[in-house]
User: What shape does this take?
Amino acid sequence: MSKISRAIREIQTMEELAQRDQWVNRIHPLVKLFLTVFYIAVVVSFPKYQLTGLLGMMIYPLFLFEMGELSVREALHRLRIVLPLVCVAGIFNPFFDREILICWGSFAISGGVISMVTLMLKGIFTVLATYLLIASTSIESICYAMRLIHIPKVFVTQILLIYRYITVLLKETDRMMQAYALRAPGQKGVHVKAWGSMMGQLLLRSMDRAEELYESMCLRGYHGEFYCGKSVGFLGKDLAFLLIWTAVILIFRLFPVLEYVGSLFV
Assistant: This one.
């Protein structure tokens, strides 16, 4: 299976996860969207040396992984390209911040090491929170929640179309790659001389497909806005989920809960 085929399969797998009949999937999409944005904002707000407090924020993604019956291993595998990139952001901190903050006998930890780990955890937690939102909520439901808070319809439509039809573009690319491989047997990859023509053909095919899609949308009554997702009632369990997790996230942000728990065993 080619890399493009694997990418298409990954997108289809994420859509299948979002369509499951799990308890987390049935939570109102607006609640999950708000909690994800709120969680990311709180995680980012931690100071660079507050590593202990930041570790407590893993409670939210761990809960969703457990209740949604999602695999942490599969999530890390799907995010194997993104996670190293977010971790690279603080890799040079130990070279610039060499002030010793923690000493255990002859073992010393500088502020740069702590800030590096803190920055890496911030990136990991935010990426996992976004992954959990996509894995438990369909793109139509996310766009529906965005329209409920009056995000401009043009912006919402662009997100929906990009996500929905990126698979079409990938399939078109896979077709072209297969055709090239049949015409150049034994050659690994695309020769540099063919890059320009391949990109040009892909652009022309994409423009033709976009024109066909737009005409189909107009024939089906499209007038500038998608009515994405069916209307979902806001139930008591949705409000309870929102209030409980908002309170939990705030408590872990304002108070050193892990330090309090650790002091009970010391």
